[in-house]
Amino acid sequence: MIAGNLRSMFLVSRAAVRQMRGQAPGPAGRRGAILNMSSVLAEHPSAPLFSTHAYAASKGAINSFSRAVAAHYAADGIRVNVIAPALVATPMSERAQSDPQILDYLRARQPLAGGPMASDDLVGTILYLLSDEARMVTGQVVSVDGGWSLGGP
Fold this sequence. Notes:
Number of domains: 1
CATH superfamily: NAD(P)-binding Rossmann-like Domain
CATH architecture: 3-Layer(aba) Sandwich
Helix content: 40-55%
């Protein structure tokens, strides 16, 4: 879990920072934006249906790492943010999507979605965080979770 989630994100971020630092700054000294993927489980774990200890730890490390990188490279015009979704209907979550008990839980825990979110539910936030409209946003972890982080069953 650590290698798959944390190490790969570290390597991609390192390569992106090197590339961005090597390019001429754009308007107002901006060089680029990095958006890392976390999970609502890093800050709002769920038991007993999900045994996600290592997963939550790896995503929590992504949050911390991203904030540290954002602080370090802000002066270079590089922004780093994180999106932290709840359960999204993807191939990775197929087991959860086929479990009636988990689907009932999700309807209550993600009330805005009424179950698993669609990947399209993340697009607006992703586009915003990578756009020039978010030029003053860095070091933030933005939850897109259909209400998961507000509590629930």
